[in-house]
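Uracil-DNA glycosylase-like domain-containing protein, pasting as requested.
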Amino acid sequence: MTLHTILTPEWIHEAKLIAAENPRLEGFVPSEGGLHPRILLLGEAPGDKEVKIGRPFMGPSGKELDRWLASLGLTREDIYITGVVNSRPFSIGKTGRKSDRRPNQKEVKRSAAMFDWELSHFPDVLLVPMGNASLQRLLGTKAKIGDLHGQLLERSIQKYNQQTDSFELSKEKHQIFPLYHPSYSKRFKNMKPVVDADSQKLKQLLEQQSNRH
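Structure tokens follow.
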């Protein structure tokens, strides 16, 4: 299996700088996948395992992702994976142990230029945000995965304007298919039928696209 990153040395240098300047971020995990993906899989941020290995979706979450892809008839070469933030956001508990946390708005904005550049590289590829962090990065804070999961949307997406330090909606529309994270049904067993039904809808959508080409 041959996986690539589209990130240039300049972007990689910038991403490493972002982590180095923030004491609550660690490591750097470049985006990766096939160069002609069927879907663009958008996560939140890497966790401990991903940062140690330097690749997205490793360990238990990686096995879960690979099983899920197989159920869709896909491999990692058929997708491209990136995240809202490419370093691990963490907090430190009373025992001194690090634990994953959701990236804050300042961190999301700091990584926004690279995220926007990556999405612009695949203008016609289906966007699949997994969970609220990546969904809200695309559509704004009012968008909720509980309302929009398993639906094919055609919407403008947020792009970061450095001059105004704010997000603005793109002129062009993108196809978006929001999903719960594959591990969600592991943690919340009662959600498994919902998660499975959404995956089935995505599979049908991909089959329809294949038939059109």
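Note for the archive: The mean pLDDT is 94.
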